[in-house]
Design brief:
Number of helices: 3
Shape: globular
CATH superfamily: PAS domain
Number of domains: 1
Length: 115
């Protein structure tokens, strides 16, 4: 039997968080719950992303959903390098919120130019 999308998102080794246009957290996968465990983990679902971010970060999130353009960057936190991908998600062609995927990166990573 094929796994469901929900089962796949739960098993992925990347933190996935989804919010609506009001910045209310709609979904956190298991990795996101673990990543934000000190702040409440999955009990944060239903609360506001604005309560979890500095004002500048909250403004950036609002800009992403307003512009429709993704925000991608890398960070180092607690000795782990991560790529953060934040982008609007759409329902019926209309921006409905933001998805953030935080992907742990290895210490060294090959780059392939396939152009």
């Amino acid at each position: 039997m094929e796994p469901t999308l929900a089962e796949m998102l739960e098993a992925v080794d990347a933190a996935i968080t989804v919010c609506d246009l009001d910045l209310t957290i709609l979904y956190m996968n298991a990795k996101a719950g673990k990543t934000f465990e000190a702040n409440g983990g999955r009990s944060l679902v239903g609360s506001s992303l604005a309560d979890c971010h500095k004002p500048g970060s909250t403004e950036k999130i609002r800009q992403i959903v307003a512009s429709g353009l993704p925000n991608v960057y890398t960070i180092s936190k607690n000795g782990v390098n991560k790529m953060i991908w934040q982008a609007p998600w759409k329902k019926d062609g209309t921006i409905s919120g933001l998805v953030e995927i935080s992907i742990p990166l290895p210490d060294s990573m090959p780059h392939h130019d396939r152009g």
